[in-house]
Amino acid sequence: MAIKSKSRQKKFDTRIDFTPMVDMNMLLITFFMLCTTMIKSQTLKIALPTNEKVEKEDQNKVKQSEAVTIIIDGELDEKGLSDPSKGKLYYYDGMPETENLATTGESNMKQIQFGTEDGAYPAIRGILQERNKEVVKEIAELKDKWKKHEFDKDDDKNTEIFQQKRKEATNNENFKRPVVIIKATPNACYAHVVSVLDEMQINGIVRYQIDRINEVDSAMMILLQGKELNK
């Protein structure tokens, strides 16, 4: 009697060869690298003042009628951090007047409100625009022409010409332009410093610098704060 042989199942190799996928991945990586726009670093851009030709002995001197000093102050919260909602601004024109500071506490320093209105700072903006009114007026006229496409019918060309003429207006030596000195106390909020720097750009001021607060400024601030509390 013949013995039936048991049927054997054929075993198939289930391994998948991924070698062709390597070439595909390299092609995809190369494609995305060439076609994708890289993310630009988000850094604070500050328009630095232009270098003007002046005599060496006059490089660190500013006309008293053109100088405006802005001092940024604030208050610390319970954690020892500056509170953005309690910012303070002080300013004075020219040199500090300290003749009557020791006797009556009087000086030419004034305090203004650091409030916001639709993202703007109306108090400091009004002061800067008043002292830079010739440049502000010229920029306003140029902006009106830009909106009407009077420089060029093409949008890009129209904007390019406007930016060039705006730069020429802000650097025009025939206009009376202020020199703004920005100072900040240790209690000042970083966001307020950035806001004041933004006002330089908004109001077309190219001559400004960031300086350290000195003892005279501190004394005027303390006496002015005392007078405000006594009212």
How would you describe this protein?
- It is a single chain.
- The chain is α/β, with parallel strands linked by helices and about 230 residues long.
- It folds into 2 domains: about 65-130 and about 175-230, Nucleotidyltransferase, domain 5, CATH 3.30.420; about 135-175.
- Helices cover about 40% and strands about 10% of the residues.
- It has 6 helices and 5 strands.
- It has helices spanning about 20-35, 120-130, 135-145, 155-170, 190-200, 215-230, and strands at about 65-75, 90-95, 110-115, 180-185, 210.
- The protein has a 5-stranded mixed sheet with strand order 3-2-1-4-5, with helices on both faces.
- The protein is elongated, with a radius of gyration of 32 Å.
- The model has no long low-confidence stretch (mean pLDDT about 80).
**Mean pLDDT over the full residue set:** 78
Determine the strand fraction and express it as a percent band: 5-15%
CATH class of the largest domain: Alpha Beta
The CATH architecture name of the largest domain reads 2-Layer Sandwich
Number of strands: 5
What distance lies between the first and last C-alpha atoms, to the nearest angstrom?
Answer: 126 Å
Low-confidence stretches: none
How big is the Rg?
32 Å
Shape: elongated
Topology-level CATH name of the largest domain? Nucleotidyltransferase, domain 5
Alpha-beta content class? alpha/beta
Give the fraction of residues assigned to helices.
Answer: 25-40%
Indicate how many domains the architecture comprises.
Answer: 2
List the helices and strands in order.
HEEEHHHEHEH
Question: Strand count, sense and closure of the main sheet?
Answer: 5 strands, mixed
Q: Largest sheet, order of strands side by side?
A: 3-2-1-4-5
The total count of helices amounts to: 6
